[in-house]
């Protein structure tokens, strides 16, 4: 059985959950745009980098952080496509079907961006 340190998992839970809670409150109180801005806050990314710092040191930490950052950038670019697609598809197909289509598009675009930008390594 692999050795799993629970503190980084707890940190992701705490920061990610807090970001979701803040974005939900912001959306309810100030409208969806502000909630969307808070929802894009990279709390999970921050928690993951902090977790990496517990597992890696020195040049290994730099390499792991660089790989994580590249993957996060790919995910964020794919998120932009997903948000644009959702804004169109939800209006056209309704919120359930439109959201499913937008998420399917994200699932296809994220690996495509990764392969184009980072190659097949």
Task: Explain this structure.
It is a single chain. This protein has 121 residues and is an all-alpha fold. The longest helix has 36 residues, at 58-93. The mean pLDDT is 81. The chain has two domains: 1-55; 69-121. The two termini are 28 Å apart. The chain has five helices and no strands.
Classification by helices and strands? mainly alpha
Residue fraction in strands = under 5%
**Roughly how much helix do the residues carry, as a percent range?**
over 70%
**Helix and strand run:** HHHHH
Notable traits:
121 residues; 5 helices; globular; mainly alpha
SSE layout and pairings?
Elements: H1 6-30, H2 32-39, H3 43-55, H4 58-93, H5 95-118
Helix pairs in contact: 1-2, 1-3, 3-4, 4-5
What would a concise description of this structure say?
With 121 residues, this protein is mainly α. The chain has helices at 6-30, 32-39, 43-55, 58-93, 95-118. α1 (6-30) runs antiparallel to α3.
